[in-house]
């Protein structure tokens, strides 16, 4: 009896380990970049993959995330204190990679921290005030809530939302209309008036439930490029959002290709989420569609830029 229990415990632990490895890295193969040197999965940020059979063992895949980049070449990056956000010309190192979700605060990949306004006794997340610096925090209470998000807003800017309400505070700098190198990253009202149409680029994440009418779009100058998609049962309480692989009837292998066929090259993509588009078997659990995409320049936008360049010759 004792021996049987030991075998049962062993296989349970083995399955937990295997699931943890799978759940931490569901993205298509791509360039691996080290997050940090760790000895256990517990020390590897939730945004990164952990695999003891690889080097590095705690890493992320660059094609699943991206920099928040302005058309002037500057990106949001992190100072050495792993907290302060600045505009930098370094858009390729690991510190420049983020995920901008429609459902929770933006995440910094290497640290696993989220982006929030700096608060104090007078300034809170629901009333941050004007001209407030953004910083990285590991406060799981706020990082795992869907109260703070940054979404495409006025004039192409990333706008601050709280409880799904727009606050007319946009991501930029403290004083100038355009990011300058080493400027700290702020949210402020007047930056929403700056025309940044087609000037910001980043990786977006959207979630839709089965039966929901999915609808997402880019600005008129750009088109959708699907990076990755998955369909299945959401892992409760895990951020960034994750799809479970425990129920084989609810696991798909073709979600990315399906979504590329539906949305790639379009400025706006709308459709009803139906499980038979993604699953070959009947899944009786509540399911979601999870999508990561970028907005890339469309043909008309490229042609207009070429025309402008020719006229300037």
Topology:
Layout: H1 2-23, E1 32-34, E2 49-50, E3 58-61, E4 69-70, E5 75-78, E6 85-88, E7 98-101, E8 107-108, E9 114-117, E10 132-137, H2 140-143, E11 148-152, E12 158-162, E13 165-172, E14 186-188, E15 200-201, E16 204-209, E17 213-217, E18 222-232, H3 255-263, E19 268-272, E20 288-297, H4 299-312
What features would you highlight for this structure?
313 residues, alpha+beta, Trefoil (Acidic Fibroblast Growth Factor, subunit A), Jelly Rolls, 3 domains, six-stranded antiparallel sheet, five-stranded mixed sheet, 30% strand, globular, disordered N terminus, disordered C terminus
Characterization of the model:
This protein is α+β, with helices and mostly antiparallel strands and 313 residues long. The protein has 3 domains: 2-63, no CATH class; 65-201, Trefoil (Acidic Fibroblast Growth Factor, subunit A) (Trefoil), CATH 2.80.10; 204-301, Jelly Rolls. The chain is 16% helix and 30% strand. It is built from 4 helices and 20 strands. The protein has helices at 2-23, 140-143, 255-263, 299-312, and strands at 32-34, 49-50, 58-61, 69-70, 75-78, 85-88, 98-101, 107-108, 114-117, 132-137, 148-152, 158-162, 165-172, 186-188, 200-201, 204-209, 213-217, 222-232, 268-272, 288-297. A 6-stranded antiparallel beta sheet has the order 9-10-14-13-12-11. A 5-stranded mixed beta sheet has the order 8-7-16-20-18. A 3-stranded antiparallel beta sheet has the order 1-3-2, with no helix packed on it. A hairpin with a 5-residue loop joins strand 11 and strand 12 (158-162). It is globular and about 55 Å long. Mean pLDDT is 86; it is low at 3-24 and 300-312.
